[in-house]
């Protein structure tokens, strides 16, 4: 905080009428996009354009209108009373001004009086200096990571804006508005940008606010400073990182009477930590709110549910911030007897939350509200959406629901586009609900029945202990999950109760042939389908898709492999004291299409390695378009053979990609250059013939392990019987565990057939000028796409809104378990068997390895050396080509039977999955030790 000339005090970030700066939680979820602003701006502009109107860019000015407008109209153009504006006028008064106007219209809500200096005034000011346009052009071309250039250019623009004299008529409009409220009163002068306090982007703390400003001269000076604060380095960088054009964001200024409260603080109408929409949180302290925001004191914290304070922590509040009579603020000591007194009574807290619920209902979403208490009367000085909350699936009822994340099971926790979501829902075996671009399964009814609950928890717990723990946390809460008799409609958990099958490799062969025949029929029959007939055909194909997935024999084979794995791990630990013995026994198991995919890329590297010119070409391939990549390769010595090898690989595996459950993701066949970094790693790190050698080495290790285990068992009491049982299970696991990967391969193969046909339809819409771009259909659901093909019409605004929403979803972390109250639960490991400071996870592939951590979030950016340990958020089958070149694996998401774990065991890689925030807690290049047998990671000095 610093004292400014003219009496104003600039807060540490974004202050308000009661002295607030930016308050923490909002900053954790900065996101948004150009489209967050434009639809609202366009609507509002129509409402206030009076002949001159507002230009679309910063450089446009309403000069023509100035000549035609009289005195009152001039005031209306440049100044609006807060009670004259509402949320629809973001383009006129910015996000903060629009929300304050909306607040002032809510019955029973008191808002300090004030007015807004409109964005028209800002446009007029910046039009005075044409050099600003040139600097904005330079700014838009900067790399967001070039902080020095951003800092320099931003400072130049700020100095220019602050140096522009406010024209006389504009200054007169502001001072006339001041005179109506009281010229010598104290005011807060607050920035209010058009990209601010939006549902998907708070922009909290990005521009400036000045407190306790006294006198017209000082007010005008601080209005100029607020205009200039649109170009603070932090605001410019925020917009650059979120893809927002600087020219589309304009600045209004709120001038609002200061109030001098007994207490002030922040009310969240949903718990900002857990996300629970039924729990409100109140932070409170003495004096101006800036003491809380600047970290000068810890606040009192109250939690309220159903009109009752259910928890509170009263802090020792040793300091407070008070306003000075001449302007500005100062820190003061709080009397010792008062320090531990609560800033609010319980009754006041409940009354405040009641006001908050009224505000929440008005805006239609949970709010982050800044408040102050004056003479036992609450005044509201700001309300903005809480942008960090994970949305709750819509159900249309008021019942309690418990949802489990699909993404954590499918190893794809990124958001999906609408077409991808709807396609997965249409082809899934159980109903799925969408929230923030992710899918969830409602397990409430299964949890309600004791029998189905036990089976569900058992299956989930074996795969992901964190999800089980999260579910048990919900179950521990009396009454949240209803109780049903065992015969209720929940039924047995998916995959449970399957009948046994013989240990016969012919079963797997038959299942693979069935899938291949079904895909071949799909490819044959879809060729003649176009227009609406294609969509009718696809709806029938989806039924065949589900029929193949639910094939009882396929389910039995999958469960046979998984159950044999669990049996071996449990029994061999009981009989021999050996952990995770099945990990070695499953090395190089047959018929694993995913592990074969990784080894096959080693064979591609063998074709390229003898030709230095090919290797050099591949190192520069980022400059070659995907469609030209293979043609250019074939022009070089050895290039024809290399092209043929890559083409053969793509023919078998080209339908795969990272995040492959989303049909909209680019496949390797569509973007073959994605594979180039992995091919180059294989060329550098391996000798010719590595694929065959690695597979055979794994097979021999498994065979040797089998002999060792059986020999040791025979030496035990009842040893022959134990050895016979173990031998049957070893044969069983090696027969069926590889097939675990094949159904996903079949799904993705079918998806690529669907996608190619749908993209042809999208191209027809582009040719008919219905769509500007082919991939715009990704932002339509399957049914909406179908409707567009029938009608030859598409709602472009809907597509833009979906793009903006999709962009915002990336900032949200999906929970493993989500309740209908909005509570997000990630679960915890209830363990105490790891060293202090170790990162805890789930052991999925035995062994201990030490090496360099490579934190990689995009497979296309892989640059691995022999002995590296891959650390990433999640791995689906498309990551398996990387597995052949690493020494260990750490992921944030995963379970015992998810794809990454299965392939890690296939390749004999020590692996720990389900490590919360691994990619943040482990730095790229750090040395770490992965304990794949015991499930933890040590970060080494």
TrEMBL record:
The keyword Transferase applies. One of its GO terms (molecular function) is ATP binding. InterPro entries: ATP_grasp_subdomain_1, PEP-util_enz_mobile_dom, PEP_Utilizing_Enz, Phosphohistidine_dom_sf, PPDK_AMP/ATP-bd. Residues 91-389 form the Pyruvate phosphate dikinase AMP/ATP-binding domain. Keywords: Antibiotic resistance, ATP-binding, Kinase, Nucleotide-binding, Pyruvate, Transferase. Residues 865-935 form the PEP-utilising enzyme mobile domain. It is an enzyme of class 2 (transferase). Its EC number is 2.7.9.6. Pfam families: PEP-utilizers, PPDK_N. It catalyses: rifampicin + ATP + H2O = 21-phosphorifampicin + AMP + phosphate + 2 H(+). One of its GO terms (biological process) is response to antibiotic. The keyword Ubl conjugation does not apply. Belongs to the rifampicin phosphotransferase family. PANTHER family: PHOSPHOENOLPYRUVATE SYNTHASE-RELATED (PTHR43615), PPDK_N DOMAIN-CONTAINING PROTEIN (PTHR43615:SF1). This is Rifampicin phosphotransferase. It comes from Streptomyces violarus.
């Amino acid at each position: 905080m610093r004292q400014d000339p003219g009496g104003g005090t600039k807060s540490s970030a974004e202050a308000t009428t009661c002295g607030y700066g930016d308050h923490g939680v909002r900053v954790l979820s900065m996101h948004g996009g150009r489209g967050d602003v434009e639809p609202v701006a366009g609507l509002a502009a129509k409402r206030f354009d009076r002949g001159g109107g507002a230009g679309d860019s910063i450089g446009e000015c309403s000069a023509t209108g100035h000549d035609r407008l009289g005195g009152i109209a001039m005031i209306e153009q440049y100044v609006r009373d807060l009670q004259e504006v509402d949320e629809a006028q973001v383009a006129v008064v910015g996000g903060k001004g629009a929300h304050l106007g909306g607040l002032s219209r809510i019955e029973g809500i008191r808002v300090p009086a004030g007015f807004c200096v409109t964005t028209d005034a800002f446009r007029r000011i910046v039009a005075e200096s044409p050099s600003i346009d040139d600097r904005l052009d330079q700014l838009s071309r900067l790399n967001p990571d070039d902080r020095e250039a951003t800092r320099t250019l931003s400072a130049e623009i700020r100095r220019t804006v602050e140096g522009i004299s406010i024209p006389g008529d504009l200054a007169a409009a502001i001072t006339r508005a001041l005179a109506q409220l009281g010229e010598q009163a104290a005011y807060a002068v607050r920035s209010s940008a058009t990209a601010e306090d939006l549902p998907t982007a708070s922009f909290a703390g990005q521009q400036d606010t000045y407190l306790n400003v006294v006198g017209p001269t000082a007010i005008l000076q601080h209005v100029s400073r607020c205009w200039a604060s649109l170009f603070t380095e932090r605001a410019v960088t925020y917009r650059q990182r979120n893809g927002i054009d600087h020219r589309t964001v304009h600045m209004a200024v709120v001038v609002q009477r200061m109030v001098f409260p007994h207490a002030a603080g922040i009310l969240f109408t949903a718990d900002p930590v857990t996300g629970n929409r039924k729990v409100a949180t109140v932070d409170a302290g003495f004096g101006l709110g800036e003491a809380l925001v600047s970290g000068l004191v810890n606040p009192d914290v109250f939690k309220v549910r159903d009109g009752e304070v259910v928890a509170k922590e009263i802090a020792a509040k040793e300091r407070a911030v008070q306003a000075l009579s001449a302007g500005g603020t100062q820190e003061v000591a709080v009397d010792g007897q008062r320090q531990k007194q609560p800033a609010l009574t319980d009754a006041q807290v409940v009354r405040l939350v009641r006001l908050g619920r009224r505000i929440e209902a008005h805006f239609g979403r949970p709010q982050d509200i800044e408040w102050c208490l004056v003479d036992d009367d609450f005044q509201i000085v700001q309300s903005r959406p809480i942008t960090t909350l994970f949305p709750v699936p819509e159900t249309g009822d008021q019942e309690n629901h418990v949802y489990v994340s699909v993404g954590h099971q499918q190893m794809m926790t990124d958001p999906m586009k609408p077409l991808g979501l709807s396609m997965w829902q249409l082809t899934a075996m159980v109903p799925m609900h969408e929230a923030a671009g992710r899918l969830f399964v409602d397990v409430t009814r299964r949890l309600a029945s004791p029998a189905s609950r036990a089976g569900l928890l058992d299956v989930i717990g074996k795969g992901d202990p964190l999800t089980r723990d999260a579910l048990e946390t919900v179950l521990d809460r009396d009454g949240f999950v209803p109780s049903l008799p065992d015969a209720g409609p929940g039924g047995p958990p998916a995959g449970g109760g399957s009948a046994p099958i013989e240990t016969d490799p012919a079963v797997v062969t038959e299942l693979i042939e069935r899938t291949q025949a079904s895909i071949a029929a799909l490819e044959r029959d879809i060729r003649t389908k176009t227009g609406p007939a294609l969509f009718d055909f696809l709806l029938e194909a989806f039924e065949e898709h589900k029929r193949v997935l639910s094939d009882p024999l396929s389910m039995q084979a999958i469960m046979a492999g998984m159950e044999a794995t669990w049996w071996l791990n449990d029994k061999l630990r009981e009989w021999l004291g050996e952990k995770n013995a099945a990990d070695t026994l499953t090395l190089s198991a047959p018929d694993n299409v995913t592990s074969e995919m990784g080894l096959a890329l080693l064979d591609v590297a063998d074709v390229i390695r003898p030709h230095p010119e090919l290797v050099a070409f591949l190192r520069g391939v980022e400059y070659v378009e995907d469609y030209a990549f293979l043609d250019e390769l074939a022009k070089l010595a050895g290039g024809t053979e290399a092209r043929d090898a890559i083409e053969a690989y793509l023919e078998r595996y080209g339908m795969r990609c990272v995040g492959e459950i989303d049909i909209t993701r680019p496949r390797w066949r569509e973007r073959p250059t994605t594979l180039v970094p992995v091919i180059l790693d294989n060329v550098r790190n391996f000798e010719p013939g590595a694929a065959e050698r690695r597979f055979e080495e794994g097979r021999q290790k498994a065979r040797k392990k089998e002999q060792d285990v059986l020999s040791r068992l025979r030496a035990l009491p009842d040893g022959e019987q134990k050895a016979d049982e173990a031998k049957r299970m070893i044969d069983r696991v090696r027969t069926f565990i590889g097939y675990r990967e094949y159904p996903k391969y079949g799904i993705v193969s079918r998806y690529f057939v669907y996608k190619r046909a749908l993209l042809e339809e999208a191209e027809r819409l582009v040719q008919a000028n219905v769509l500007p771009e082919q991939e715009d259909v990704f932002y339509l659901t399957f049914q909406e796409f179908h409707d567009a093909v029938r009608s030859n019409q598409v709602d472009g605004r809907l597509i833009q809104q979906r793009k903006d929403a999709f962009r915002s979803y990336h900032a949200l972390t999906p929970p493993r378990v989500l309740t209908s109250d909005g509570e997000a639960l990630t679960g915890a490991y209830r363990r105490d068997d790891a060293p202090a400071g170790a990162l805890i996870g789930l052991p999925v592939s035995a062994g201990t390895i030490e090496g360099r951590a490579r934190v990689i979030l995009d497979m296309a950016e892989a640059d691995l050396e022999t002995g590296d340990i891959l650390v990433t958020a999640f791995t689906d089958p498309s990551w398996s080509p990387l597995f052949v070149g690493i020494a260990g694996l750490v992921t944030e998401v995963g379970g015992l039977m998810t794809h990454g774990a299965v392939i890690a065991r296939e390749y004999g890689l020590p692996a720990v999955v389900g490590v919360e925030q691994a990619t943040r807690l482990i730095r790229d290049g750090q040395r770490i030790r992965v304990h794949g047998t015991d499930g933890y990671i040590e970060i080494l000095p």
